[in-house]
Amino acid sequence: MNSKKESLVQDAQDSPTQTPLFLLFTIMIKVQKGLPLNEATTTEKVKTQFREVSDMYEKHFLRELMKSMRSSVPESGLVKVNGAEKIFREQLDNEYVEKWGEKGGIGISDMIYKDLVDKFGERYGLKEHQAKPTGPLKLGDKDTLNVKRNFDKTNQKLEFQFDGLKKDQAGGVEAVSPWSGMLSKKVQLSADEYFLELNHDNGLTSQMKFKGLIQPLNVNDRLNSGDKIGILSQDTNEFFWNLKNQVIK
Length: 249
Description:
Blueprint: H1 8-14, H2 20-32, H3 43-71, H4 83-102, H5 108-120, E1 137-138, E2 144-152, E3 157-166, E4 174-176, E5 181-190, E6 193-200, E7 204-214, E8 222-223, E9 228-232, E10 239-245
Antiparallel strand pairs: 1-4, 2-3, 3-10, 4-9, 5-6, 5-8, 6-7, 7-9, 7-10
Helix pairs in contact: 2-3, 3-4, 3-5
C-alpha cells in the first residue's frame, strides 16, 4: 500500500515501532506546521484520527499501568508460573483494557481529544474561529498591569484579576466589551462599584466587577466588540473578569 495514502492512525497500527505517544506527537507536529494529516483531509477524517489516537494513547497508558501493577505483586513461590501463563495474563490484561475502552475508559482519551480540538480545531474546521478579545480594558501603549489567571473547575470558568495597574495616560482606563453581545445583568454593589454580565455572540459569558463609572446602559442593550462599558476610578488599580461558556452549567 502506498504510504502517502495511508492515514497516520493506520501507519501506527501497522508499525510496532510507532507507539500511541509517538503518533500523538506526530499529529501535533504536523498541525503546528500547517501540514495535512493525509492527502484527503476532511473534517470527519480529522475527528476520527484525533479520536483514534486519543483512544490508543489511553489504552497504552492502561496497559503500562496493568504491567506495573502486576510487577508489584510478588510471586508466592508455591506454584511456579511458566511462560505460557505469563502470556495468558498479558492477553487477559489487554482484554480488560479493551473492555474498559469500550465502556468509555477512564477519561484520559476525552481529555486528549478535547485538547487536540481546542488547539487545532479551528485549522481543520472542527470549531468556529474564536476572535481575540478587544478588552476588557482599553490600555494605552505605555499602560501596564499584572494579570492573575485561575481556572475554576467547579464552575468551569476562567478568572482574571487585573491589578497593579500603572496608567501613563491621563484619566481613568476604559472598560470595553471584549466581543459583541448583549448586557444580561447590571448590579450596583456600592456607590462606585459595579457588576456587569454580558452574553457574547460566540457563546461566552463575561462577568466584570470594578470601581468607577459605567455608561448609561440597560439590561438587554446590544454592545459591539470594543464598545465602552465604563471607566475605572483613578484611585483603583483592580479589575475582575470571569469568562465562562454559556453551554456549560
